[in-house]
């Protein structure tokens, strides 16, 4: 028996479509040459983290002539996202849909892209492949670990103890790459630096994040950084304990006026502007856009009071190096169990690094 | 002493002590509130909603007035409001208090998320902790002993409630209402009124517990702040067998066990962090299982509770 989908939303859509057909002459419903970008977030727009980084980029895009932005926040990675995106397409006339959360991709965006071939779908994680997925779907992603490397350089020269505390959510490759990059950055300026790691087990656990930050300070770390969805609690706890901190995802400088060093930030607006421009010119949107410092897709927060002058100089030099393509992972490198994991130089965009499943020697922690 | 202060065991113990003091307060307030409500013969599963709304209201009021204690009071009043709705709806005929509680939980958290949007970014003045550990000269111990006044308020409240139940006529009325509504009616007591007041007062306490989350520890407002602490606290009441003093012990134990996960990783025991992070729940299960076999455990439950009847 065929499955009949009958929801309040589909009724509303049908009603709205009928109304539009009855009152508007065909073709006038949508302004010529304009682009409507629909952006969907998994959490609140103002979370001091991942969602805020996307939302702030969208705020910049709103100022571009001919671009209309529609947004919805707190959309879970369930059928709800398919319904949100469909109503953006059918009710608001969106022609570019941006899904910013990992779990939106399969099956929701893949199915929708097949059903709406005239709409362009782009997803913020490196998951799209040409042979498996529709051509009007694609991926964009920024290699934030490059900015975390700069965090490490600045932290290594701003720390007295050489012990950097890291509060992480889950041991997945992008998180591990950020942890390892902080270590390599710190080691590039202080060969004895270590990274002490605590996993909380989930993306948003404010009480446990505060406990973790306190435990790291008690264990002797004097710089705290993190990879969790909303770094507000970690940065505020570090500041309250009188130690320095490095940010993640968006700018947390305002939360730590005394101890903030710098932070790793996405620069999604570079990609969103590219999409808007391409669409306005009638050009095809690229399926895959990835990048880092060399193409202006990540940045570091302006240095705070916690950064020493040497740290600022070294971090700025590191940024210039990354822009010129200087590799972060230069072998031979061992993991913290003693196995050789990287032999020679790895390009910063080497696909082998995307599958990272180890912590380098110098990280005190474990992925299981 | 100094040699011991450098050992991993000391770090773990200090983290557990600090965790017990820092994390327990919201559990304590919600559990005491639920204890009062359940003693009167009604279950309020919606206290998670009171906790989240209380956290949000406390942060907003503290931000606008500059006075965190005004925020605490406002959080309590917001909890009183939710508790009063629950208490009123449940006295209508053929209403199930568990279903209403779940609805109130969704209502409270939804209202908090809706009203709380503008308060995620700003920083509000927080409650000051009392530094009781400066004399030790050990920074980590001094930090663990920087205790928020609400912690002491919670303990005093538990002692007071325990005395109230045992030694006052009002306490006897609440207990009778909870154990046998016909007996209370025979005493000439309005069962509905007692339960309404007990639910509203319990809601007030849960709201105050929420203010601790946003104004003390972790000390900021965002939508993931509670991660289900209100629900756990309701379960702790059963764990504590409806005794206010045991509620305090249960909250302290839960707080200390929650510190094990991060602290073990900090001292270098990094394998198995998922297991250590689950320590509070494993511990609760074990103690529940062992205490459920006790001959006296059934005797403590108020007889009028809809799950007991």
From TrEMBL, chain A:
What range does the record give for the signal peptide?
1-31
- Sorted alphabetically, which PROSITE patterns does this protein's record hold? TAT
* InterPro entries registered for this protein in UniProt: ABC-Purine-Binding, PnrA-like, TAT_signal, TAT_signal_bac_arc
At the top level, the lineage of the source is: Bacteria
| Entry GO terms, CC | plasma membrane
**Record-annotated ABC transporter substrate-binding protein PnrA-like domain positions:** 35-286
> Which keywords appear in this protein's UniProt record, sorted alphabetically?
Signal
What's the name of the protein?
Answer: ABC transporter substrate-binding protein
What is the organism of origin for this protein? Salinarimonas ramus
UniProtKB/TrEMBL annotation, chain B:
Superkingdom of the source? Bacteria
Q: InterPro entries per the record?
A: ABC_transp_permease
Signal sequence segment: none
Location in the cell reads: Cell membrane
What sections of the protein cross the membrane? 12-33, 45-63, 69-89, 98-120, 140-165, 193-215, 221-240, 247-267, 273-292
**GO molecular-function term, one example from the UniProt record:** transmembrane transporter activity
Please report the organism this UniProt entry assigns to the protein: Salinarimonas ramus
Q: What Gene Ontology terms describe where this protein resides (cellular component)? A: plasma membrane
In the bilayer, the protein is annotated as: Multi-pass membrane protein
Identify the CDD domains for this entry.
TM_PBP1_transp_TpRbsC_like
Q: Which UniProt keywords apply?
A: Cell membrane, Membrane, Transmembrane, Transmembrane helix
The protein's name is: ABC transporter permease
